[in-house]
């Protein structure tokens, strides 16, 4: 027990935040970015999020290690904008439907940055989130029904078993002489069998839960309490500040633009 | 735990259950009374309705769309659904009954469902874990436990709910011998402490014989054919028990004699390191020869990597390092590395029976499943029909030929999956837990099939926790151990 406490003292402040607050924080950080479309607000948001990440235990190295796939994914989102966005300003190159123009370049950069600004907080906030604590939070803080939350979380545990099932099915097809040829053609049949497994495992789990009194009449109690504290308020205020700064800077710089305008 | 609990009284009055869509009753009519604090072993053939009875007492049989009930079951004179929580049920497969991510929450889950006050829950959790001898931190991930630990966790989870009766459905079927022992000892400690009633279903009665004070036997039609003290029941008419598939202590079945032929190596493993992709090897430096006409058993504790090793030997998983070389007689022009063989080339050379039978079923009827391999060998017409019919008879599956393989009982699925591979007589046969979930009769059929395959010249490799199986068929024993795998020749 003492080692667990020691670990908690040295752990980043974000670990003591209620998981429900983290969900809200993510909404605060992403909603304004989904509604606006300009370069400055997104860049400021990215910079501020990277600067705040050490509070969540993400130093530059760890953040880079987790977030590098974004370097590939984010530009893909940008490229479609680059090629197909409504042309405006100077046109640099055009071929059929493709028009690369001044405004499409701007848009492409804005969208690429936005992908970073949306994905980084998700990575930082949800790394190491505890499923059980999240369940308790959703029940006690967000007041969602017990049955719904616990059923969902128990079901999510089965996903790793399904991955295992899928791998074994692939191997068994190879063992029984059906493993040559295209994987794509085997897909429908295997998907069907996986569905059968999913139903069987699901109903077995439901029985096990029922056997332990789940769903019985009477009120459930909660072994752990999930509550909100100052740290939760601090996180939300911090996130609101980040967004306020990002948008204000964009307005002052004169680049602020809402989607569709 | 300083709770003076009293055992529950379990009673069946002319009780019967029929699964939806079946014409026969799984249990036709059972009259039975189990007194508070009694420790009862329920034995009998696969499919005799033992699990059904346990589920009935635990009130988890489901509603009318699951099946039809007649007569009544009573727990302390009340209907089971009215006294939920008074009886607790542990199921066979530990993986399907874990609900939470961490050990502490898992044990607390049942208490929460009963509405136990939070300040009372954690002392109960600690006490239950210590009673079953599970000394792991409360924050330990449940997925990281071994099979024996998972079953003891399931037991602790019930114990914390303070039930008056424990119903255990083949709680040790998945476990290595030491894991099975640990579960049995945990059950004994718990009963001594609480005075609860015990009803345990198990084919292997030896492990439980000295713990229980009463044995009840059902035959394959679900009729009561034995009831009394272990000594009396086992002494009275053991032929009835043997017919019902019960393992009677002192009546160990044996397979017919077999003499391994001259040594001819088909596969040679040298300094093999095995593991799943993207994880470090689980076993390394494994070296042994797989020889035609010999049965090699791979034994070792749960989780040591036996299944991974077997998949590697079967040409399904690439080794991490070392070599696995096929001899010319096996390779027959396909190259000496099994993992590089095409699926079609593998089919006639190495057969694999998977741990989970359902993973390998490819057709929608039992008959088609057996035909599949024979057709691949070019057998057609009357010969095909005859061979399939004969094999289904041996397996005890003749009446189920047109059923979907997925609807069979666990033991039946296992027999079918072994037979579908053996029937094509590949030169090397790799089996992962071939006798899992079998009653004595099913066991004899399987052990005999495996012995026959070796007699016919196949090289057989079997991963097994079943000490009786290993003792009666193995020529070579490979003891898989992370600290160094040992190979022992037991017969030559």
Give your account of this protein's structure.
The complex is a heterodimer of chains A (261) and B (492). Helices cover 69% and strands 3% of the residues of chain A. Chain A is mainly alpha-helical and 261 residues long. Chain A has two domains: 139 residues, no CATH class; 70 residues, no CATH class. Chain A has a two-stranded antiparallel ribbon. In chain A, β1 and β2 form a beta hairpin. The longest helix of chain A is centred in the middle third of the chain and has 30 residues. In chain B, β8 and β9 form a beta hairpin. Chain B folds into two domains: 234 residues, 3-Layer(aba) Sandwich (Rossmann fold), CATH 3.40.50.300; 227 residues, 3-Layer(aba) Sandwich (Rossmann fold). In chain B, α2 packs across α3, α2 runs parallel beside α4 and α14 runs parallel beside α15. By secondary structure, chain B is an alpha/beta fold. In chain B, the strands form four sheets. Chain B has a six-stranded mixed beta sheet, with helices on both faces. In chain B, strands 14-15-16-12-17-18 form a six-stranded mixed beta sheet, sandwiched between helices. In chain B, strands 2-1-4 form a three-stranded antiparallel beta sheet, covered by helices on one side. Helix content of chain B is 33%, strand content 22%.
């Amino acid at each position: 027990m003492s080692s667990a406490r020691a670990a908690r003292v040295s752990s980043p402040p974000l670990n003591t935040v209620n998981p429900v607050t983290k969900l809200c924080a993510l909404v605060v950080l992403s909603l304004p970015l989904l509604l606006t479309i300009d370069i400055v607000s997104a860049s400021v948001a990215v910079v501020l999020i990277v600067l705040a990440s050490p509070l969540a235990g993400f130093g530059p190295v760890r953040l880079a290690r987790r977030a590098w796939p974004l370097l590939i994914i984010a530009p893909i989102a940008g490229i479609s904008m680059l090629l197909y966005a409504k042309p405006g300003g100077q046109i640099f190159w055009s071929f059929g439907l493709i028009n690369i123009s001044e405004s499409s370049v701007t848009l492409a950069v804005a969208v690429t940055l936005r992908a970073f600004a949306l994905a980084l907080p998700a990575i930082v906030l949800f790394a190491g989130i505890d499923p059980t604590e999240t369940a308790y939070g959703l029940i006690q803080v967000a007041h969602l029904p017990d049955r719904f939350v616990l059923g969902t979380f128990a079901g999510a545990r089965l996903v790793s078993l399904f991955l295992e099932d899928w791998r074994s099915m692939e191997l068994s097809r190879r063992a029984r002489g059906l493993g040559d040829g295209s994987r794509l053609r085997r897909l429908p049949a295997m998907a069907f069998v996986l569905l059968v497994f999913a139903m069987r495992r699901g109903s077995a789990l439901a029985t096990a839960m029922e056997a332990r009194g789940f769903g019985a009449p009477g009120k459930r109690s909660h072994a752990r309490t999930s509550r909100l504290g100052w740290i939760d308020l601090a996180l939300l205020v911090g996130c609101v500040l980040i967004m306020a700064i990002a948008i204000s800077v964009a307005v002052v710089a004169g680049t602020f633009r809402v989607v569709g305008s | 735990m300083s709770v003076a609990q009293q055992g529950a009284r379990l009673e069946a009055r002319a009780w019967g259950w029929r699964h939806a869509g079946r014409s026969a009753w799984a249990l036709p009519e059972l009259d039975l009374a189990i007194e508070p604090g009694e420790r009862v072993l329920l034995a009998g053939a696969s499919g005799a309705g033992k699990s059904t009875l346990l589920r009935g007492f635990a009130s988890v049989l489901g509603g009318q769309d699951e099946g039809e009930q007649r007569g009544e079951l009573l727990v302390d004179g009340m209907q089971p659904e009215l006294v939920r929580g008074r009886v607790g049920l542990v199921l066979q497969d530990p993986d399907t009954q874990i609900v939470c991510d961490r050990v502490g929450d898992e044990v607390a889950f049942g208490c929460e469902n009963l509405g136990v006050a939070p300040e009372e829950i954690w002392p109960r959790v600690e006490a239950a874990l210590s009673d079953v001898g599970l000394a792991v931190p409360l924050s330990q991930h449940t997925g990281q436990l071994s099979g024996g630990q998972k079953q003891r966790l399931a037991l602790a989870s019930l114990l914390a709910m303070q039930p008056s009766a424990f119903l255990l459905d083949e709680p040790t079927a998945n476990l290595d011998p030491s894991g099975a022992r640990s579960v049995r000892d945990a059950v004994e400690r718990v009963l001594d402490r609480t005075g609860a009633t015990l009803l345990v279903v198990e084919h292997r009665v030896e492990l439980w014989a000295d713990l229980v004070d009463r044995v009840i036997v059902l035959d394959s039609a679900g009729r009561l054919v034995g009831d009394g003290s272990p000594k009396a029941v086992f002494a009275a008419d053991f032929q009835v028990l043997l017919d019902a598939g019960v393992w009677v202590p002192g009546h160990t079945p044996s397979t017919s004699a077999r003499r391994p032929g001259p040594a001819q190596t088909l596969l040679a493993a040298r300094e093999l390191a095995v593991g799943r992709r993207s994880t470090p090897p689980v076993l390394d430096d494994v070296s042994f020869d797989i020889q035609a006409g010999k049965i090699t058993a791979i034994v070792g504790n749960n989780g040591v990597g036996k299944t991974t090793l077997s998949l590697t030997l079967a040409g399904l998983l690439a080794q991490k390092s070392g070599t696995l070389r096929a001899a010319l007689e096996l390779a027959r022009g396909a190259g000496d590395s099994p993992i590089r063989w095409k699926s079609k080339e593998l089919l006639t050379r190495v057969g694999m029976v998977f741990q989970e039978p359902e993973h390998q079923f490819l057709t929608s009827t039992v008959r088609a499943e057996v035909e599949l391999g024979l057709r691949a060998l070019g057998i057609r017409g009357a010969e095909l029909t005859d061979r399939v019919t004969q094999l289904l008879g041996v397996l005890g599956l003749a009446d189920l030929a047109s059923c979907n393989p997925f609807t069979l009982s666990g033991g039946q699925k296992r027999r079918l999956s072994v037979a579908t591979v053996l029937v094509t007589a590949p030169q090397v046969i790799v089996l992962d837990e071939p006798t899992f979930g079998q009653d004595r009769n099913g066991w004899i059929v399987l052990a005999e099939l495996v012995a026959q395959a070796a007699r016919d010249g196949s090289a057989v490799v079997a991963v097994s926790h079943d000490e009786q199986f290993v003792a009666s068929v193995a020529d070579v024993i490979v003891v898989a151990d992370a600290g160094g795998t040992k190979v022992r020749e037991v017969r030559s």
